[in-house]
Amino acid sequence: MCGIAGVFNLDGAPVSKDDLTAMTRAIAHRGPDGEGLYTDRHVGLGHRRLAIIDLSEGGAQPMHTGDGRYTITYNGELYNYVELRKELQQTGRTFVSHSDTEVLLKSIAAWGPEAALRRFNGMYAFAIYDKFARRLVIARDRFGVKPLYYAMCGKTLLFGSEIKALIAHPAYRSEIDPEALVEYLTFQNFFDDRTLFKGVKLLPAGTFAELGLLGDSRFPEGGIRVTRYWDFDFQEPERPGLEWVPGLQAAERRHEDAGNHVRQHECNEGLPHREFLFRPLDHLVPISSRSTNPSENNGR
Fold first, then answer.
1. What residues pair up with 9 in beta bridges, in sequence order?
2. Domain shared by 188 and 288, yes or no
3. Annotated catalytic sites, by residue?
4. pLDDT digits over 166-206, tens only?
5. In terms of residue numbers, what domain contains 148?
6. Number of domains present in the structure of the chain
7. How far apart are the first and last CA of the chain?
8. Of 139, 199, 218, 275, which residue is 20 to 30 A from 269 by alpha carbon distance?
9. Eight-class DSSP state of 220
10. What's the CA gap between 270 and 298, in Å, rounded?
């Protein structure tokens, strides 16, 4: 896992680099391999890195597009980044690293936030700043595997992978939300985007939020605009379910599906893979799927 944090001042006031540093270092445990900061007048992005795919400095963040328009801070893994990179290369896009971060960044630059998010298969939380449009987008994966908290403090948006990043900024005053506390003690859960901290929200899974400067015609009401790009679909499948398939065929189909999922989730090109057998059923299935394709194992 990595850690992200950031600030966006709606009134155009400059971001304090010291405050951004404090936010980023509050979540240093999420990324021991490096720290990066980016500031541009009213916006600041911080990143704590845990190097997984591209271990070189080419994968360091915040990362920028070649023209300097887009800058991203990102936490997660994009399982289909190899396929997306090939698709982007066919359109003339070039890459200087082997990281999924660069693929995610250039996907958004090519297709826009919503269209790109619909193509992504992975677990992620990120913030991307468009310097030309002076717009910030924060987003979270479909199932909400990666966390992303935010708070509006007057004319300042704070966000981070953990609430402690927001608390580290002087604009946020830490208070317990009594109603949220009652809800949590009653149901052991929250049923919306609230948290135990007053004013702090958890960006819902499958959504992205946009933010612009005050006076931006795209945000007539000011503040933050949240859009859902994905939701569950419980429609009946067009083809019969596995209950109509004889037992052996059903088992073979499940085994084939498991193998496809294993290959798709092995996004770490060139790095060795290992399995930890602390949940036999969960982990023996992917190991079994590999054993049927010895040529793919390569000594894993």
1. 156
2. no
3. 2
4. 999 999 999 999 999 999 999 999 988 999 999 999 999 99
5. 3-228
6. 2
7. 22
8. 139
9. T
10. 10
